[in-house]
Design a protein that fits this description.
128 residues; alpha+beta; two-stranded antiparallel ribbon; three-stranded antiparallel beta sheet; 2 helices
């Protein structure tokens, strides 16, 4: 997600497929200057192996910054933590985000919210 002038946008829909290094990842870097995952281009930053993370394979829509989240949907988006507790965004006023602090970090959307945002991204991809 991306916020610009109190309007929230979907940047991409991404689903993690697995976290194992495969042939598509390219060769293992020999020096710090070599790309970590040359076969993954834009998504290579997700596999930050040197920082203790694994390579990540994703199923994702193209990255774009022009797909707004409708205000009514923004107000009802729900996230769920590992303990099963849910939360919604604070500071949504008249379909606009007054403060983006609630979007900072990585969170798992509740299934219903994920499905609704998938519909938004599907519409954006098909309209290209």
């Amino acid at each position: 997600m991306h916020v610009n002038w109190r309007e929230a946008f979907v940047v991409s829909r991404m689903r993690v497929v697995d976290r194992e290094r495969r042939g598509c990842c390219g060769t293992v870097p020999r020096t710090w200057e070599d790309p970590a995952y040359p076969g993954h281009h834009d998504w290579s930053m997700l596999g930050a192996e040197g920082c203790g993370a694994d390579p990540v394979h994703v199923d994702a829509t193209p990255v774009r910054f022009d797909t707004p989240i409708p205000g009514d949907l923004l107000a009802r988006l729900t996230w769920r933590n590992r303990r099963g507790r849910t939360r919604q965004l604070k500071y949504v006023v008249d379909g606009r985000l007054e403060n983006s602090v609630g979007l900072q970090g990585f969170y798992r959307l509740a299934p219903a919210s994920a499905a609704e945002l998938a519909d938004v991204t599907a519409g954006a991809v098909s309209s290209r």
